Amino acid sequence: MTAPAPGGRVLPTLNEDGTRNWIRPKPSSGPWWRRRRVVAYALMALFIAIPHIPIAGKPAVLLDIPRREFTLFGTTFLPTDTLLLMLLLASIVIAIFLFSALFGRVWCGWACPQTVYLEFLYRPIERWLEGGRSGSLRLDKANRHFAPRRLLKYAIYLGISLVLAHTFLAYFVGAEAIARWVRLSPREHPVPFIVMAVTTLMVFTDFTWFREQTCLIACPYGRWQSVLLDRQSLVVSYDHRRGEPRAHVKDHTEQSGDCIDCKACVTTCPTGIDIRNGLQMECVHCTQCIDACDTIMEQVGRPRGLIRYSSQAALEGVAHRVLRPRVVIYPLALILFLGGFLVALGTRPAADITVLRSQAEAFRVEPDGRIVNQVRIRIGNRSRAGHEYAITVIGAESGEVVAPESPLQVEAGELRTTSIFVVLPREAFTAGSRAVTVRIEAGTSFVRDQPFTLIGPSDAKDADPDEDGS
Q1: Domains in the chain and their CATH numbers?
Q2: Are 140 and 24 in contact, with CB atoms under 8 Å apart?
Q3: What are phi and psi of 281, to 5 degrees?
Q4: pLDDT tens-digit readout, 92-105
């Protein structure tokens, strides 16, 4: 039996025989390219700078997963901030839906790190070292993956990937920790060294090997556009009514469209698609085909805009409608969730107080018959300054309260736990319990009363020191 003949290319990066089709796009300089380049370099600088920018004594962004603390622009969120985190995440998702409905895949083409670094850092270095697109294609055809020029390219890529990996990790461990890791020998911190090495290898592999396949295969956003976009959404589009039927310049007639089938839009596409085939999952809306086609149109004396930002409805002659269901619903939902987040954030208390029992024993009976309860108090200071928190117990006046750390000093953003010991006579307990109030005070700026139930013996037998109730 023989294998069936291939039925055509499935992906732009895959040849019909199953081998990799390397995409070597030819950059098209133009207004859109220049705008994207300014945005890209600004985003690169911002990405590197953010971990080093302090806000209120904290990093601008620090996602400390081991400690479960997430700092965003000077505000620290804890795992107990379930409502805040839910509202923030929902606001981000709805904002993505809204921008997609209005402007298509503007994130993919203009702000996604995969596109920004690949198109404005890695590929320019490749074209510079390999002699442009034609030089890269010659090396591909000769199967010279380890030519001296490419080995030099890989070495430079590795250095860049090392910087990007360290910057990426700084968002999770902090810039100071990264600086310590760099100065120390790998033998002194083997686990962080392995994390750095693996992250560097992943970045290097992504931008050296996977490249546009990350957008086409791994990223789900392209598949979402079928539900995120409607026929009124702005997308990079080819005007079929104006461009068809295609004809080369020398074969052009009065019945021919403006498209001269030069394939400049295909040559410049970083994902290797033909935009003339309509809206496609692989299109990242990078606008390179717009610049390429406008240049050709000027050369042949025809109007620009054969490929342009437009909507599918507008290309079919349907009037553009700004107001439509999703453009109304998404902003309203965004206002609701983002407003809820801001309100919840503004009304959040200056400190989180948690009162817990001892993990070792419910209570202890002293030799003199008095009952001792150990109470653990956890204080999370959410303010931007350190405070001393005084701890008192209301309802324990018949006994004594031993508080080794009162007031307790808690710095800004810090979470500390201390213990107090409430000692009461047995007769202070009714049916084995005693209701008290634990008061936490930080001067006059913060007062919190936390109800708490002390545990004691319920009968005389339990009060015996030998039966300590532990």
Answers
A1: 31-225 (no CATH), 236-315 (no CATH), 351-463 (2.60.40.10)
A2: yes
A3: -60, -35
A4: 999 988 888 888 88
